[in-house]
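quick one before i forget lol
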Amino acid sequence: MSKEENINIEEQATRRQEVAEAYPGGDDADDLEELTDQESEDEETGDEEAGQARPTLKEVIEENAREDEKPFSSTLALRTILGGDILNTQAIRRQVWLILLITLFSIVYVSNRYSCQKQQIKIDKLNTELKKSKYKTLSLSSVLTERCRESHVVELLRANNDSVIHPADQPPYIIMIPNP
């Protein structure tokens, strides 16, 4: 074995150890080991693509383990909407205040409508009560009018013989008083 092969084997062992430490017992560790194997094979054959260097294992791990989000794709599919991917985009995060404002207006609208409906129910109830009172007043007024008629009063006086009050035999007199 040459020194180059020993160095490559040592590099592979350290990379595998780094992968094992980064992903203990994970399924992705096998994929990353395959990636390191491919890198070592590429290094051995000396394949470099048209001046572009292949990313190292560290760069690949950093790319896959980044905390920021990937840019939102221009295609909008039902799967991205239902899956909730649309809510993680930067565009939605920029519009948070607008969404909160719309939510606030919706809450105010619903509460205003609820209070208006409550007042309309109260107005309807009071109108119904007013109609009932008018009908009751009208019926009582008609009963009172009938009882106060002269013919009805005369009948009552005749029915009660012990009464001191008698109907007048003569028409009423009109007395004129001069103004001073």
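fyi Residues 53 and 121 are 77 Å apart (CA to CA).
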